[in-house]
Design a protein that fits this description.
By secondary structure, the chain is mainly alpha-helical. The protein contains five helices and no strands.
Length: 127
Amino acid sequence: MNVRFLTPKLHGLIDYAAAAGLIIFPFVLGIGTSSPIAFWLSIAAGVAVISYSMLTGYAYSAVPVVPFKVHLVIDFVAAIAFALAPFVFGFAGLDAGYYWALSAAVFLVVAVSQTEQESTAQSAVTA
């Protein structure tokens, strides 16, 4: 059984939804009580996700110059950064939990995302 079921097209939709969440959730959840960096880091990450998603070679980009595999590497590095942020910046409580949850979610999305080749191969099999 292949656990990589998330196509690049669906990954793109998740990226834009996640970017919106990264920008909106700090306001809704009150992120930043242990450090204002927790608040602004989430917003900056949301803007960054929108930026590199618009440059990624998948269905919802504006200028597809970044290969999807590179995009997945960027996502993986972001997941590591989210996991380390509470330690590096001294986040506590909800702020720390928020970043650890973000990290877990991004690791999961990367783990279940197909590469372009896997997506193309699966399309050929089902056709």
